[in-house]
Amino acid sequence: MKFPFSLNGCGLPLRLSCLLLVGIIWPGAVSAQPVARQIKTPEYRALQKELSSGWNTWYNNSVITQALLPESFAINLCIAHKNSSDFLKEVLPSTEILKRPEKVTLGLRADDGSYTSLRLSYKGDELDIQTATRDGEEYILVTSAKPSAAYLIAEAGILWNAPGAVGASADRLFGEFGARRIQVFFTEKPVQQAYVGSTGPHLTFPLTTELGISTGRRCTLAEIRSVIAQRRAAQEKRVSAYGDLSEPFRAMQSVLAWNTIYDAANQRVITPVSRLWNYRWGAGYVLFNWDTYFASYMLALFNKKLAYANAVEMTKAITREGFVPNFQSIGRGVSTDRSQPPVGSTIILNIYRQHRDKWFLEEVYDELLTWNRWWPKHRNIDGYLAWGSFDGATGRVSQTFSKYESGLDNSPMYDGVPLDSVTHTLALADVGLLSLYISDCRALSAIASELGMTNDARELNQRAELYKKKLVTLWDEKSGIYRNKRLDNGAFSPRLSPTNFYPLLAGVPTAEQAERMLKEHFYNAGEFYGRFMIPSAPRNDPAFKDNDYWRGRIWGPLNFLTYLSLKNYETAPARAELIQKSRELFFKNWRLNNGVYENYNAVTGQGGDVINADGSYHWGALLVFMEFIEKGLIR
């Protein structure tokens, strides 16, 4: 399915084959605007101000646009073909299955924008684009693989309707922002070409030679090459410092850094799941709940400030009803009917234990406690917890959106499960939800103790024990695993998923039960075991053959949460095998095209075989992040 988009100030429209994804792409009940953020600490205000500065790939819609904050000045690179209406300005990471006109291979880069590299292929042209910063100035090197009939257009732009002025003279671009004047110089002379599709100040260059671009002063090609080589060497040194984990680090850092953008409306730096998802939502960004918490955890390995920013911003999206929503975006507000899996406290506690800044806990504690208290009030059925959907403003309830709250939108676990009309929840005691919630209670209790909130800590521990007793009742002695339970007829559900291993995360199973769960299910080739692990539906489930989203495909977060679950028990061989198989799956794709996929085929290991597996989606890197935890590089 194709969706037309006009090119922001660039003349001719470009058609983008967008992802038509199951579930979360359709918002359901939304509010008109995101909930206002209540920032408490001066440390966090200063952190966002520091992050929101300098040159970087801040603009979501083009990875070859270099933007300067706080001015919002942009150097936009575009391509036009001679004697043609072709004009490429918006450049997004893509895979062949999406049928975009350009192909982008994202390369080595620093998360602070001090060095970036990528390869852009477009209608027979192939460009290597490298950038570097030094002393507040920007350097860009564009290298064409061969002489071309196309033009490279360099535009001066102002993003996000910021105040200022831009213009072009005979041989340079410039921007004026109060007392500051930014000048952009080139190593080649521009050509006169009036009809290239650009509607902003620009200069046009033939794609026949290497082109250097610099700000501040006119640099020679040799000077620009030198700065870029120095910055590249610095980044290579940073990567190589991780030794045998250098390649996993490079991949994880790359996908997180390329997806880090500036949200001008809220004056903040954030790391959404991918640029394509942001583009599809049409208004700059979309943050998804557990996805963003996972991103913050990975970022904590190498960029504390970005880790804090993403964890704080997702938590600050809390709704008036008291839950951190499924999603937040400018255009569609927040989901007012549903949350997502409660992983926030668990991840925030681990980040805190890595970096030990108490103000970080103080910034998010009230919202985390409100969210924790929300679950038993609004998702309780017969003393268990179940996924649900209810919009208090409209009275709307939705069986479909209840599934979306699980984060496992079309999982066969929820096939045929009715919606309870009184509680507005699925009539299913959910093992995964109960386990994650118990973990949330215990993590938040530890946070409360760290902050001296002893009464809150006691309350949270009591709640953890209450739901632990309910989870214990879901053990199925016959099959040797904890099972979801239908609350309309009392029967154990016959469907399994990796979430059935999560009681290990809550520390509920006995050692003997844990051994049975691994022997009879984790290592069962008819269910979860195999060359590629762990499928979201067992291999013997009829839904496995669907190979459609959560119906059989492999997902980074499921492997990751299963790994965290195994860490609570003496399971070193199982953890080692899960890490090794996850790494093999990840690099089967990364080494092919630098793809970090939203999900993967559990039979072939392919990421790009279906349209609903974004190829630059940051939680795919959870497949290699586990090893950093296992080797003690992060808590």
- Biggest pleated-sheet summary: 8 strands, antiparallel
From the spread of the alpha carbons, the general shape counts as globular
Low-confidence runs of at least 5 consecutive residues: 1-35
Percent helix among the residues? 25-40%
Radius of gyration: 25 Å
Strand proportion: 15-25%
Number of helices: 15
> Would you count the extended β strands for me?
29
Task: Tell me, rounded to a whole number, the average pLDDT.
Answer: 93
Strand order, main sheet: write it out: 7-8-9-10-16-14-13-12
Q: What structural class results from the helix and strand content? A: alpha+beta
Gap between N and C termini:
43 Å
Keywords:
Glycoside_hydrolase_63, Mannosylglycerate hydrolase MGH1-like glycoside hydrolase domain-containing protein, disordered N terminus, 635 residues, glycosidase, 8-stranded antiparallel beta sheet, 2 domains, 6-stranded antiparallel beta sheet, Glc3Man9GlcNAc2 oligosaccharide glucosidase activity, Glycosyltransferase, hydrolase, single chain, Beta-galactosidase, Chain A, domain 5, alpha+beta, globular
Task: Write a structural description.
This protein is an alpha+beta fold. It has two domains: 56-240, Beta-galactosidase, Chain A, domain 5, CATH 2.70.98; 267-630, Alpha/alpha barrel (Glycosyltransferase), CATH 1.50.10.10. 32% of the residues lie in helices and 19% in strands. It has 15 helices and 29 strands. It has an eight-stranded antiparallel beta sheet with strand order 7-8-9-10-16-14-13-12. Strands 3, 4, 5, 6, 11 and 15 form a six-stranded antiparallel beta sheet that branches. It has a three-stranded antiparallel beta sheet with strand order 19-20-21. β5 (73-81) and β6 form a beta hairpin. The longest helix has 22 residues, at 572-593. It is globular and about 80 Å long. Mean pLDDT is 93; it is low at 1-35.
